[in-house]
Amino acid sequence: MEKPTFEIYKKEIVVKQAHLDDLNHVNNAIYVQWIQEIAGEHWNSRFTEEETQDAHWFVLEHHIQYKQQAFLGDVLQVETTVETPQGVRFPRIVNFYKNGKALVQARTLWCLVDAKTHRPKRVSQAFLDRFKG
Asked: Which of 20, 23, 110, 123 suits 31 as a labelling partner, its CA being 20 to 30 A distant?
């Protein structure tokens, strides 16, 4: 069986002073914030607010590898895509690049939760199809 291909959602981020830590490079916590933001943007680009009001995303895990540092004024390219769900676990990949080179690579696991029952729910095929490339 052939593995499905999912779209890649992209954006650029310009590093600002507020993103820096005491060593004058992007603070690790900022990457977590950016990972969560791009995941939400990707989600919102595929679904209307009305379509998403019955469910919420919860983070189960972030695995982040830092390859290089980013500094004030750097322009970062950020890409994200989803992978095939594993039960109620929904993997997402987020990669940051600077000048075409890998800066940060992250794999996160998310869980879709019913807004009324607060119980995990599986991602439907119709839902998953919205992310296909």
From this structure: 123
CA–chain centroid gap for 119, Å, is 22
| Structural domain total, the chain | 1
Domain enclosing residue 14, as ranges: 9-129
26-44 as b/e: b if 16+ CB within 10 A: beeebbeebbbebbeebbe
Burial 5-20 (b: 16+ CB within 10 A, else e): ebeebeeebebeeebb
Task: Calculate the dihedral angle through the C-alpha atoms of 92, 44, 58, 16, rounding to the nearest 10 degrees.
Answer: 80
| Domain-located, residue 2 | no
CA–CA separation, 65 vs 18, rounded Å? 22
Give the pLDDT of residue 50. Answer: 85
Q: What percent of the chain has pLDDT over 70?
A: 98
pLDDT band at 127 (very low <50, low <70, confident <90, very high): confident
| Pairing verdict, β 9-14 and 101-114 | unpaired
This prediction's pTM: 0.91
